[in-house]
Amino acid sequence: MQRTLVLLKPDAVHRRLVGAILQRFEQKGLRLVGLKLVQASRALAEKHYAVHRGKPFFEDLLRFLTSGPTLAVCLEGREAVAVVRSLMGQTDGAKSPPGTIRGDFGLSVQNNLVHGSDSPENAAQEIEIWFKPDELLNYQIAGSEWVG
Ligand code: DAT
Ligand code: MG
């Protein structure tokens, strides 16, 4: 079963959208494996967004991610990486279609509420950045034979 790393970024927490966004992932059938409210340090934010180092928006992006609480979420399920990316929508909220998280709740490019890993390899790395092994739970979820 595939795992992915989701972040509900500080704008989601400040705008009180955490419940609404998490509900979409749960309703789709993804399972919670880890959940943790984090005040990200600059070092953590730099590690997470290392691939964007040197881009013009990098410093603002770090300032944003360290500006308030982030809910780190590890989700598991069939094709979890691609499923999360499709529920999120496009990077720019203004271009993201209705029905997606960013399309329904966001207008900004930077303050786009949610992060989702873009490949299984990056998911494994990002889960390691945000969670210690004992913060990820293995359990049999009720009804899994119906959901997948
Ligand atoms: P995504 O979060 O959709 O995977 P990304 O990995 O390309 O997008 O970029 C990471 C984050 O950086 C993105 O969520 C918001 C910010 N960002 C990307 N492009 C930007 C831009 N042109 N201006 C400002 N912020 C940007
Ligand atoms: Mg990305």
Strand content: 15-25%
* SSE series: EHHEHHEHHEHH
What structural category do the secondary elements indicate? alpha+beta
Contiguous helical run count: 8
Spatial order of strands in the largest sheet: 2-3-1-4
CATH class: Alpha Beta
Q: Tell me the total number of β-strands.
A: 4
Features:
148 residues, alpha+beta, Alpha-Beta Plaits, four-stranded antiparallel β-sheet, 8 helices, binds 2'-deoxyadenosine-5'-diphosphate, binds magnesium ion
Describe this protein's structure:
There is one protein chain. This protein has 148 residues and is of the alpha+beta class. The protein has a single domain, classed as Alpha-Beta Plaits (2-Layer Sandwich), CATH 3.30.70. It contains 8 helices and 4 strands. The protein has helices spanning 10-14, 18-28, 42-48, 58-65, 80-88, 101-105, 120-130, 144-147; strands at 2-8, 31-39, 69-77, 114-116. It has a 4-stranded antiparallel sheet. The longest helix has 11 residues, at 18-28. The chain is globular, with a radius of gyration of 15 Å. The mean pLDDT is 97.
